[in-house]
Design brief:
Distance between the termini: 41 Å
Strand content: under 5%
Number of helices: 17
Number of strands: 0
Radius of gyration: 22 Å
Order of helices and strands: HHHHHHHHHHHHHHHHH
Oligomer: single chain
């Protein structure tokens, strides 16, 4: 990945046409994101947006929130029937708009990691507004899910029904073979399961969606940290379901063995697995609460960096919160 970044830096000045330069800078941003250099990748992505004639006057939360409330949110306050009719929109033909939507999606997770909440909403809402103006594309399914999730947070009961309609629309577009983009298809179901899905469908259905559309297809679970987060999510659903603690304990034990067995020589994995087993014992009444001490496991991590997104810290948080958030 570093070699790829060096190569891009060597050739980037050869691209003077704005369209070509936007494409090569977008590739650079992807590499930076993969290296977890999120802020630098976001800065490069904004250069890409400007090359595509899309520019925010300011990047401050105050300005973005004002833009959201005055320009974007009012456009998304549609009736149930209006949301349903969006499925009939023509396909987007403007390649620049489709490219912008792709860049928005790639910026989303880094913004999530850096807790740039206003910018997250802006990227997703703007993409949906582009759909209203230019037509549907395969890159709008994730923004529709996140828009639905945000709308559902409103205290108005009618907004929850609207969020359900936005979800239905997103999943229908994800299944549309003329729009389907494999990576977006998996991402859409991933965030549907992680966000609003459990409030719409039975937890058993969400677990099936997760196994069928996410775990089996998406490379999001390629790192140890992602595997730990996935186990946390599934365990939380099991705890909320009508499943006995003994059954949950066996499911978690099976997943720990299948998922982390080959990493058993890694200190952070040993800590996560031990913590998971101990908290299951706590639920079963086999040990006392004072015997489950997070600092005991955190002390095992010899190489935690200051970066809050390091795999070590994410695994520790995922393991501990897996159960304590439920308590």
């Amino acid at each position: 990945t570093t070699l790829c970044l060096n190569f891009i830096n060597e050739i980037i000045d050869l691209y003077t046409d704005s369209t070509d330069r936007a494409q090569i800078l977008a590739a650079k941003a992807r590499v930076l994101f993969s290296l977890k250099q999120f802020q630098e990748g976001i800065d490069i992505s904004f250069e890409v947006l400007e090359l595509c004639d899309f520019k925010l006057e300011e990047r401050t939360d105050e300005y973005i929130n004002k833009y959201l409330n005055s320009k974007l949110i009012p456009r998304l306050e549609l009736s149930y029937s209006e949301i349903r009719r969006l499925e009939k929109l023509p396909k987007a033909k403007d390649s620049k708009i489709i490219f912008l939507q792709e860049v928005f999606n790639e910026m989303y997770f880094p913004c999530l990691a850096l807790r740039k909440r206003s910018l997250e909403k802006f990227l997703m809402f703007q993409s949906v507004v582009f759909m209203l103006d230019y037509g549907k594309s395969g890159f709008v399914t994730l923004p529709l899910i996140m828009t639905a999730s945000n709308i559902a947070k409103s205290t108005k009961s009618s907004n929850f029904i609207k969020s359900v309609e936005y979800c239905k629309l997103a999943l229908k577009l994800a299944e549309d073979p003329s729009l389907n983009i494999f990576e977006q298809y998996a991402l859409t179901y991933h965030y549907y399961c992680y966000s609003i899905g459990p409030f719409i469908e039975p937890l058993s259905a969400i677990l099936k969606h997760y196994d069928l559309f996410v775990t089996s297809t998406h490379n999001f679970h390629s790192s140890i940290a992602d595997k730990a987060t996935a186990l946390r999510f599934k365990t939380f659903l099991w705890l909320c379901s009508n499943i006995s603690l003994n059954q949950i304990s066996q499911k978690v034990e099976n997943r720990l063995h299948a998922t982390f067995g080959k990493y058993k020589d890694r200190d952070e994995v040993v800590a996560f697995v031990s913590l998971s087993r101990d908290i299951l014992k706590l639920f079963a009444g086999k040990i006392q609460p004072e015997e489950v001490v997070p600092s005991r496991y955190m002390a095992d991590f010899k190489n935690i960096e200051n970066d809050p997104r390091s795999d070590y810290l994410i695994i520790a948080v995922a393991g501990y919160n897996c159960f304590t958030s439920f308590i």
